[in-house]
Amino acid sequence: MQVGPIYLSVNKEKIGLIVGEKGKTKKKIEELLKVKININSKTGEIVIKSSSSDTTLNELLKARDIIRAISLGFPLDIALNLLHDEYFLDVIDLKEHAKSRNALSRIKGRIIGERGKAKKMLEEITGTYISIGLHTVAIIGGFEEVRLAREAILMLIEGRQHTTVYRFLQSEKRRQKYRISL
What we know:
The chain contains 8 helices and 6 strands; from the N terminus they run βααββααβααββαα. It is an alpha+beta fold and 182 residues long.
């Protein structure tokens, strides 16, 4: 039974990243997930279809998430983690939290930190990958890890001190380890 298609719209400027050098990125996604990807580079519209009769809806959805992750700034090797069922993509729209352009850059600055230190710490403590775009923060990782990273980022957006956020994350990680060991 044929499933799909799935429609997706991305920023036109990100089409080159999705296609990749000589089409390699697009080809790799198509081969790994048994899908056919049609891209309209003028509009940013993407259609993901089954390329064989045994392509599943799950494969179409994974292709969509990988393409979306690439369009949000993740390199292909990190986006391909979404092939695994235990990995998720979550996106925070910073426009929902910023009242002005100045507020948006201040929020992004808090999440990135001085020379990228805050972002690096968030990634290290939570075990996630984080990409900060024009007005989004995207997170890839396991369900619990993504939830923690999201919570920490929202705390930073609210204006909490970085040390408070790091202590919160470390406390939550210890609590998780304790639950696992029981």
